[in-house]
Amino acid sequence: MPGLISHRLASVALLLLSAPAAWADDSLASLVPADVGLFVELRRADDLLVPLVEPQVWVTLAELAGHPAALKETEHWQQRVKRTVNMSPAEAIRALFSQQVAFVSEGVRSTQNGVVLCRPAGDRWQLIRRWQARPLPTSGPVSLYRLPNNVGLALRGDLFIFGDQTEQGLFRQIVMQLNDPAGRLADDPNYRRLLARVPPDPDGVLFARLSRPQATSAPVASQPIAAPMLPGLPRLASVSSNLLLALHREGSQLRITAVGDAPGAVPARDSSLLELVGKLPESTLIAWAGHLDHASLAQVATALPERSVFRIAYQMHERYGTVQRLAAALDSATCVAIGSVRPQSRILPAPPVPAVAVLVATRDPQQAATEWADLFHVTLALYRLLSLKLATPIPVGEVESLTLAGQAAEKLDLSSLLGENPEQTPLGELHLSWAMDGRVLIIASHSEWLRQVLEARAGREPALGATLLLGGRSAVPSPQTVLVARSAAVSDLGSDWLQFLAGFSPQVLDENWWRNYQPEGGSVRLGIQVTEDSQRQRLVVRSVSPNMPADGVLRPHDEIVGCNHRRFATSQPLEEIQRGLARRPSPRWIDLLVERDRVVRVKRVALPFVDPIEVLRRIVAVGRLVQRVVYVDDAPDAEGWRGHLTLDLRAEQSTLGELSGPGSPAPPAPTAPAVSSSPAPKPPG
User: Fold this and answer.
1) Rounded to two decimals, what is the model's pTM?
2) 467, 259 contact by CB (below 8 A)
């Protein structure tokens, strides 16, 4: 079942979707080795696991677990599940995972060879007879069986363990652990210390080692792992060596407490982050707030090309001290708020357009306003001067003074950047507008979004404060990070954009269209050092670089015998794999034929690839499950960091009318994109 249900369960662990239960002393952590890199246990999770087998959601969760996949492969996976356990995926979840289930792997980046432990609800012997499991020689209290697709099954009492029967790895290690229960994760001091810092009786636990001691003879999975691994917990995950997430279910809300083991002190902060987020419009889609060192942002300018207008402007402002004075006038509290507007000048009947606002608290509001105005106006004048040397300069308008929500503001129309006829583009218009509201400098991409932000801050429009205190939980007094996402509304908006693009510009929906728009061009590196065995037509892996694509998938001494589901056919396998990388069917991964322990497996290596449409599809899929997300974290104490994440499960469809601002008509309800059902080609061997 690894590679079928197991890595889906790892994906679910990243979302921690579970159901109510009491955390008893019979945790499955007492049955796995102490040195595992990832351990997830859930109780009575079947009611929420079953909806995740929907193809679009299934592929999204695979992506989160580091196993990119094509939508057309979902039917092939379902067929493999049926061949393995003679059940549909939904039936298998209900039969096997309805009581207690755990997923274990060597590390966060090596979930492909994970192991699933579970206590089924039904008669275990009836299940084994239904599967026609073949018994294997064994000794001790553990019985071993073989299922189709090289899936091994170990049975001890009412406990089932599924893993790769041919791998000399974690499955066999856990089987040995059952016969001789020593060195258990439940006794690991790091695990016990973190578990003691979360509320008692959780409904689920995720424990991850984000960095592990190096060992020369250990597999790559035990090498240091780059953090953060979880984007929702930026600071907490990036500084901790071990991370634990504990889930408590309260009706449709999932309360997750995250703790890390990196103690330390941070500068004392006030509650300005809560104020920045709490006074945003209630229609805000996503809000992130944290503390930034604005003086360090100068590094961004120095990384620009030498002839860049912005780098030249920065150097000029730095020479006169404008940048330094502005940075000194700003406070560290910063918030990025994403909303949506309907461009007034746009002709196309497109969905609402995302709009961005940056809110920065200031120490000296007057000084900040003066230095920002000087910075902007001088940069604009410099651009106009330098653009005279261009053959086809892009014109920009004049700065316009206006009043928004009773506040003085300024706006620069940048719509010309969208083309000669911006009103005929899906975006319609683009502004750079700003205003000072008390001690907060606000810069927005659309003047209408700036107006909505100012109205909410003045108390004339509903604000985001109620969502920030989701479910009545008291907010952390002085958080270091605040994240609020109305994921269902984002999903609805994304669905409408996908539907619009399918008719307006269908070519952008094909991920191959984005191959020419990658940050690093077409160059791809797997991060492996190999020895070419020309006579045997294969590549022998000498080492795997940490944090590179092959980390956690390949190991030293693995033998690569082919790629893209074809064996190497010449005495130059190095050239063949290079051609295979350039011509791989999907730009987001490459399938390697890898021989390990005398068994050939297809190992999928995820590759860095930027596809905004694919990201949008993933956001849409997640928003179908979760209505809202709220995260706040505490400043670390002597024991480490602590964060509080709340997921509000989606009970009903939200409408797009609330996205468009007051008085805007709502478009028709979006329809879900069609799901392809064509099976993927079967791998050789």
Assistant:
1) 0.79
2) no
